[in-house]
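Key idea: predict the complex, not the pieces.
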Amino acid sequence: VKFVCVGFVILVLFLIEPKIFMNLYSKNRNLRWKNAVMTGAIVLLFTAGLFLFESPIKNIFFSMVSPLLQLSWKAGDSTSSLLSPVLALKNSTTDRNALQQQNESLLLQVASLQESLKAYQELTQAAQSTQGENFKLVATGAIGQDSSSDFILIDKGAHDGIAENMPVISADRVLYGKVSKVYQDFSQVMLVSHKSSVVDVRIESQAIAMPGDDLSSPPIFGAIKGNGSSSVYLDLVPLDAQINQGDAIITSGQEGVFPKNLLIGKLSVIHKNDTKPFQTADIQSFLDPKKMDNLFVITNYLRK
Amino acid sequence: MWTKYFFIAAGLLLALVLQMGLFAHLAVFGGVPNLVFVIFFLVIFFEPANTYFEGILAVLMAGFLLDATGPLPFGPSLITLAVIYGVIKTIRHFVSDYDQSYFLFYFMPMFLISYFFYTTVFSALYYFPDFKLVFGLDLVAGEAYSLAFVLIGFYLYQKIHKKPDRQLKLFM
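Result:
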């Protein structure tokens, strides 16, 4: 059908203006409109040709440019590492005060957590044995990022067992996104920060449990939505749910695309408005471009 | 002659490699420069009035590169860039290039409008029908970032293509 369409376009062009194909190198200034039609025809034919063989063309193209892309990616990594201390210097005083407060809070938490550790280990062991989540991972790394910033190109494709919608995580179980397009040797990954990305999450309170606190409170669920430019926000949290700054955001696994208990970030600023049906919050995302060199695709959790 | 076309193609490829690798790490307010579009625009803007090959090459090469690395199938960038080329070529036909000192006054708005048009059309096609996702701070930041590069390119291009002073030649 596609070949017939392309043939039809050529035939129509030929019938409308046969000279188009004869005046390819004409220098007649009066043929300006004809040149415009000719340019349009060339672009359409070129596009149709590429469209027909999209997947192999893109795969060959990425194979050819991937060494250059990797080189450029590493240069970017080094440059941002060099610049980061300079950029961080500006916020050092604020950071120091915040860290002091955090340190005091953490000392209290350590004492509390040590008591909970034993119970937690038993629970985790039980959960693992019932779930049987032994992820099969394929190690990969980003070699480029799209100018819209929320797609990355990884160096593994269909030949390595990658398929669309497979989750992509880092070594420390931070969720980065899902495979959106697969070629033979490369794949495109849509980051969780992409504007059309939605992930069901659970909010884990980081507050220290005090004697008398209700420990049987139901879990709080919400949705992480992409905000573009590597940032995400929390939405769809009921107004009566108690969430706090610093609470951890982990996947709930409810949408069936991502496994549960993958890290996404932590709550930074909460926006609660009684006139709106849900509360939202800004998230300090754990997405780190420096860690995109070492990513993993989970190949045995494809539910959709 | 052919070296010029080679440099255009090589420049576009280098621009793509830099924007996907190096500049992906150096985002400002979430925006990264679209260097491929910057080089494409410089080529079509400075193309002489009665030649078309440079412009067509820039449309095909830049469109191919942007579509190959983008999330959509081949087509949106190629066709949008072809439209931009047609409009810029027409405007350049009516605006005299006799006095190059006024170039910048219509170069900048033309670039900003073209960039905005390209980004908006591409994003609108991608996010269709949810158009509210199209606009954001990253779009403005990316445009400003690209503007910085295109202005550098503009002065370099103008220096390279500076016409000789014919008045002076009369007395030589």
